[in-house]
Every structure is written in structure tokens, then in C-alpha cells.
Amino acid sequence: MSLIEQLKFDTNGLIPAITRDAATGEVLMMAFMNAAAVEQTLATGRVHYYSRSRRKLWMKGETSGHVQLVREIRFDCDADCLLISVAQQGAACHTGHHSCFYRTWEETGAQVQGEKTSDPLAAYARQDILDALYHVIQERRQNPSEKSYVASLYAKGLDKILGKIGEEATETAVAGKGGDPEQVVYEAADLFFHTLVLLGYYDLPPERIYAELRRRFGLSGIAEKASRAQ
């Protein structure tokens, strides 16, 4: 039996969908889906919803680029609500916040709103800046321009990308030896950036790295290495 056959849509043919960050468990947003939205989500691996106000199917991030890559889909015991775990590219909320649930309600009745900034990157969690940067890298790769450094790396091929990673790794090690914390940060950022370029070459989103680190979490390094040798 397919997923759609198991779900219970309401009289309007809709089902609520709660979307959360696969890496942190944070609830990002809540929207509705119809059968077509579920089908497109399953077919593309990118979350689609149904807009009740516009009465049309839409893909999250279709204009902003802040797409949601599906990692897991669950449904509740009554099969009338979905829980979708995603790798969120950029911000989930149209306000620029990572989650739509950025406001809290105190007992005094005062509504407290998280600080909003004109810089959308300020709303990102630590790992989300890597996701956002990866999205930009992929955009530069798919729509190259003469002024794009990323596009020039991809144009020169894999060996050039690998060479830059080796160069940045060496410079990070030299900075570490030099004892200047600010220089270590600067060089490590360069290393992270060029590693993301390599991931983009193989169409590997940062979530794959997060997942591997989660798998290793709690394991001793010796035990983890031994498991790879088997």
C-alpha cells in the first residue's frame, strides 16, 4: 500500500504537515498538503505543499531557493497528520528566521519576538550557514559567470578543487602552529569553503556529513576505525 493510500485527508482533501530540522529536531513550520503535494514530495525529494489561499501546489523555496530536502516522512497513529524531517536550505520562515516558531508567549501575556535582522544569515544556526553556503555554491556551479570564483574552480576540474583543499589544509596547519587564533579561524573557514565546493562536485549536501558525524557520535575513535576495517 502506498503512503497516499494510507493517509486520511480531510473533506477538503488536505492533511496538516509539520516540518522539522532533521539535524536538530527543531520544528520549522506547519502547512498543508494534498495528495498531489505528497506525490511531488516523494517524487522529487523536495517538500511541496498546498496553499489554501492561492489554491495551488507550491514547492518550498521555489522562489527564495530555501528548499527543504526530505530526510524522513512519518505519519501519526490516526494517519491524519504528517511529520517531515528535512535538511533546510537557508531559512524556513519568510521573515528570514530559521523557524516560523521564533516567538514565545510569557505568563504575563507579553509576546516576545526574537530579534529580526536585515541580514538573513544572522538567523541561521551554526550548521545552517554551511547549508546556505552550499546552496550558493551549487547555484554558481549551475549558473556560472566569468566573475564567479566558484564557477572558475568547477571549470578547471576536480584536480584544481583537490589542490585548493590541500593548499588550505596546509595553511590551516601552519596557522595552528603559528599560535594566532584569528588566523586559525580565517584559514579553517577557507578549508571549510573549499570542502563544500568538493561536496558540490559530487552533489553531496552537508547533511550527509552531519549524518555521518551523528553515526559516529558516542563511539570511541578506536572502535569506529576498527568497524571500517571489517
Automatic annotation (TrEMBL):
The reaction(s) catalysed by this protein are:
1-(5-phospho-beta-D-ribosyl)-ATP + H2O = 1-(5-phospho-beta-D-ribosyl)-5'-AMP + diphosphate + H(+); 1-(5-phospho-beta-D-ribosyl)-5'-AMP + H2O = 1-(5-phospho-beta-D-ribosyl)-5-[(5-phospho-beta-D-ribosylamino)methylideneamino]imidazole-4-carboxamide
Name the predominant localization. Answer: cytoplasm
Phosphoribosyl-AMP cyclohydrolase domain location: 29-102
Annotated EC: 3.5.4.19, 3.6.1.31
On whether Transmembrane is a keyword of this UniProt record, the answer is: no
Mind telling me which SUPFAM superfamilies this protein's record contains?
A: all-alpha NTP pyrophosphatases (SSF101386), HisI-like (SSF141734)
Catalytic class of the enzyme: hydrolase
- Region described as Phosphoribosyl-ATP pyrophosphohydrolase: 130-230
Output the CDD domains linked to this UniProt entry. NTP-PPase_HisIE_like (cd11534)
Q: Which HAMAP family match?
A: HisE, HisI, HisIE
Check the record and name the PANTHER family matching this protein: HISTIDINE BIOSYNTHESIS BIFUNCTIONAL PROTEIN (PTHR42945), HISTIDINE BIOSYNTHESIS BIFUNCTIONAL PROTEIN HISIE (PTHR42945:SF9)
Q: Which family does it belong to?
A: In the N-terminal section; belongs to the PRA-CH family. In the C-terminal section; belongs to the PRA-PH family.
What protein name does the entry list?
Answer: Histidine biosynthesis bifunctional protein HisIE
The organism is: Geoalkalibacter halelectricus
